[in-house]
Write a structure and sequence with these properties.
This protein is of the alpha+beta class. It is built from seven helices and four strands. The two termini are about 15 Å apart.
Length: about 140
């Protein structure tokens, strides 16, 4: 069954101009990019997006990072999109990321790990709706 997932290309990647390289990996893995835009989130918007992590010690730093520079938000579509994108991203800590994953190739650190992806169907719906209206989804 076709699924959708949210992808965010984070500030460390946009600042290094490697978004095209990341998108090439995404498309080569069979994903269709059905919506995409560049945004500069405010700190408050980042806090709202990552609200699920508000009780964790890294929350404030994560929100500061996400709002530090432009990001590219996009909706990816394919069969098993959520699980397949999480595999393509690789482990959060790039030291543990498998060879050939986005984080293995591009992440700087566990904090600056280049990409975000939804972790479940419910999360994907919520995250996609946070950034996109139905008219912006072209798949």
């Amino acid at each position: 069954m076709t699924e959708r997932t949210l992808s965010i290309i984070k500030p460390d990647a946009t600042q290094r101009n490697i978004t095209g390289d990341i998108n090439s990996m995404i498309e080569a893995a069979g994903f269709a990019i059905i919506a995409q835009k560049m945004l500069k989130l405010t700190f408050e918007q980042a806090k709202k997006f990552y609200e699920v992590h508000s009780d964790k010690p890294f929350y404030e730093d994560l929100c500061k990072f996400l709002s530090s520079a432009p990001v590219i938000v996009q909706v990816l579509e394919k069969e098993n999109a959520i699980l397949d994108y999480r595999k393509l991203m690789g482990a959060t800590n790039p030291i543990n990321a498998e060879v050939g994953t986005i984080r293995n190739r591009f992440a700087i650190s566990v904090d600056q790990n280049s990409v975000h992806g939804s972790d479940a169907k419910e999360t994907a719906v919520s995250e996609i709706n946070f950034f996109f209206s139905d008219i912006e989804l072209v798949g």
